[in-house]
Amino acid sequence: MKKALFGMIYMSSYKIQLNIVDLHDLTILEKIDSPSFVQADSKSQVFEQDMDKICDAIEGFKLKLAEYQIKNYKFYGNEQLIDEMSASFIADQIRVRTGLNIEWLNGGQIVYAKVLSGLKSLNQDITANKYESTYLLSLGSAMINLSLFKNHKFISSWSLPLGPHEIQQLAEITNETPNDPIDVISDYLGAKIDHLARQIKDSSPCSVIIQHADALNAAFLKEENSTNQISREDFDQFYNRLIEMPVADMIQKYHLEPTVAVHTIPNAISIHQFLSLLNVKDIYVTDLSVITGLLMLEGKKSHQKIASNDIVMTSAQNMASWYLVDMHHANQVRKFALHIFDRLRKVHLLSKQARTLLALAATVDNIGSFVNQQRRFEQSAEILDANKLIGLSDRDNEIVSEICRYQTINDDYSAPDIGGHHYRHLAPDIQLEVAKLSAILRLATALDASHRQKIKKIVLSIKTNNHLIIHAKTNSDITLERWSFNKRAKLFEDVFGIKVTLKQEGMNR
After folding, report:
1. Residue 496: its pLDDT value, please?
2. Which has the closest alpha carbon to 113: 80, 91, 69, 86?
3. Which of 253, 316, 351, 425 could be joined to 363 by an S-S link, Cβ 3.0–4.6 Å?
4. Which homologous superfamily is 5-105 in?
5. What DSSP letter does each residue of 234-274 carry, written as one string?
6. Pairing mode of beta strands 143-150, 73-78
């Protein structure tokens, strides 16, 4: 079989890397790293002081891509440690100097890629896993992520900040005390992990996969294997040696970049505390990474597996459950919204991705009720702005948030409204999409206004005079649904230029 070669350029806060990959089996044929970056003291300096190093590396990557005759490539960058303005400036600099366009990945997209690589470990490398629950403990330049899988299906994910800011804080604290710095770091991290520990209530035996632990990989991972099992005794001996080791010795023994070495002891202490928190029976180390997850998204064979394990929707449902959303109502609204979307494809002309965003919005639009019933949709948007759904770009997260915001139909003049002050400040390329999806979701929400799932089925018919009739199949009293529908229909009629009517039909018809 002819190789399907692909180029993956990935820029982390440590370095920029090119991987030459065969997409048929995701085999990495060649890997080229730039020299490591200088670690910045502030978000505005990340990458900026290394622009010459970055652009020189890219020019070398372009030559390598040409040598392999590869025209199919992607260039991703980790955006977790920089702000939006810096990201725009850096992308422009790179485009002007090299001609390449970078696609920034937010924290949620990074977690998504890590979860995908965790699934690959479970499905291919951990064939003898005996336990229902497996945790993926993934270390990174900005966050530590803990993801839970049950029976090889993604369940949930949590994040703990441990980036340059936290490392600098640890350095300041340990420099000011005569006590053992390891004890101080343990206390600092323990206080952060304690909040997460209260959310993890499952104490059943489990496995844990440790990802992005460079020193641990160097100690235990064989070159021919991407994943290897170690014992708790193996880890404890490694840990006890590591915490007594000077940084210079650590760099030499485990072949670490200096920028990675400063994270190594805090990361090891975090692993130690997580292993104590969980009822861990099997431990695995892996070099499968964010890049592995990104490559899985490129490989055509992976899409079917990804579709059967909808990580993004699971994260949305987790959020809805956390905020005590009525899930029977949310599921009904989502079902109706997607049915309306599918029947009106030739009317709204939106993409498949828009359909996904509509489904997510239908799941989480009512989370704001946990905070404030009166302004619940605005509260939902605020919560979503602060807690991004994993796997979505910043643009898609914003669309989901704004769809939720514009479910408001209050007569209060200060309430957000399509066409109002807040809406006019949205990026022009998302305004129409937000308006169309908000209008569809308003109708779907009205069809279960009582939260009692009275309407079992809907059938749509569009008349030649631009009149949409939604036939509600039910024998119940839907007076509340009809009243809500009439209030919520105006946006749909304004956006699509179609009159819409709700008609009840008995189940025997």
Report:
1. 95
2. 80
3. 316
4. ATPase, nucleotide binding domain (3.30.420.40)
5. HHHHHHHHHTTS-HHHHHHHHT--HHHHHHHHHHHHHHHHH
6. unpaired
Give 448's contacts (C-beta < 8 A, 6+ positions apart): 329, 332, 333, 336, 454, 455, 481
Residue type for 86, please? S
Q: Which class is domain 108-296?
A: alpha beta
Helices (H), 50-150: 51-67, 84-98, 107-120
Beta strands at 467-473 and 227-230: parallel, antiparallel or unpaired: unpaired
What are 471's strand-pairing partners?
Answer: 459, 503
The stretches of 447-508 forming alpha helices (DSSP H) are 479-496
Backbone region of residue 298 per phi and psi (left: phi > 0; alpha: psi in -120 to 50; beta: other values): alpha
Instruction: Count CB neighbours of 330 within 10 A.
Output: 23
Element (H, E) at 471: strand 467-473
- CATH classification of 310-505 is 1.10.3210.10, yes or no? yes
Question: And the tokens for 34?
Answer: 């730039």
Which residues lie across from 431 on neighbouring strands? none
Q: Assess contact for 377 and 408: CB atoms under 8 A.
A: yes
Task: Please tell me the pTM assigned to this model.
Answer: 0.89
Domains 108-296 and 310-505 share a fold: no
Residues of the chain with pLDDT under 50: 302-305, 307-308
Q: What is the pLDDT at residue 127?
A: 61
Residue type, 269: I
The residue behind tokens 């099997």 is 282
Residue type, 218: A
What kind and span of H or E run contains 447? Answer: none
Give the Cα separation of 473 and 112 in Å (integer): 39
Instruction: Please report, for the chain, the start and end positions of each structural domain, with discontinuous segments joined by +.
Output: 5-105, 108-296, 310-505
Instruction: Give me the half-sphere count of Cα atoms (radius 13 Å) on the Cβ side of residue 213.
Output: 31
Strand-strand pairing, 227-230 and 280-286:
antiparallel
Nearest to 314 by CA among 159, 193, 199, 148: 148
H/E stretch holding 17: strand 16-22
Q: What are phi and psi of 191, to 5 degrees?
A: -65, -35
Residue of 214, 46, 74 lying closest to 142 (CA atoms): 46
Helix axes 311-322, 107-120, angle to 10 degrees: 120
Nearest to 406 by CA among 442, 445, 450: 442
* pLDDT recorded at residue 332: 97
Whose CA is closest to 282, among 250, 221, 239, 234? 234
Q: pLDDT at position 306, please?
A: 52
